[in-house]
Fold:
Amino acid sequence: MYSSSRVVARIALSLASLSLVAAGQSVNAHADEDGHLTQVGTYDYLTQPDFEGLAVIREVLTNESIGLGTFTNLDGELVMIGGTVFQVKPDGVPRPAAADATTPFLQAVKFRPDVSIPIPPGTECANLIPLINSAARSNDGIVAVRVRGTFTDLTTRSVTADPPPYQPLATTVAEQTVFPLGKKRAALVGFRQGDDALGLGQPGLHLHGMTSDRSAGGHVLTCTAGDDVQLSIQHIRQVRVNTPR
Structure:
């Protein structure tokens, strides 16, 4: 099992500096505290490229409610909503992840919004970062994001598993399957990474999502807000990264 061959290194993110806490050392952090991000691997790990699983998902998560990531060998998109981890393969259908599923990259948080604001109808996903930064009152650090409501247009994607020897991440992503979903009620979840947190997660805004009827989902490529979409954010104050021994 991964739990016997992996060790948890904890990185405390003050949003001004990062400090590494050695395995076994006490740290004043609990998964149920506000603003604590649970993470497996890093975005830089994926770009090496290396898609080997670093942890069994169910052994890492405790009571987190939203998150995103991928599975070993990039076997589809990982979407976590309502505390349940879903896997979206190239057929575009979300299914609960297997109990023994492993991941090379995952970010998840117990979502407790600090701020919620309505999004002007017609706003596109590409234009969400200024709204997020304004609500967060900062361009720095990591901010957990949930965008929920009716979208007049929504497009997602998934990727096909890429077993070793791994090709570059950009090459695998270029072979994506795209799902033009049209008008859908959905929840999009993810994280906005500032320049001071580069390498931990995907730069900028990274969103995965799922329709309210759970019939479709994946990595969000584009979206256009309808008249009832709400943006909710939570400041991330600490990141705990699960890394290989």
Q: What stands out?
A: The chain is about 10% helix and 45% strand. Confidence is low (pLDDT under 50) at residues 1-32. The radius of gyration is 17 Å. The chain has two domains: 2-110+239-244, 115-235.
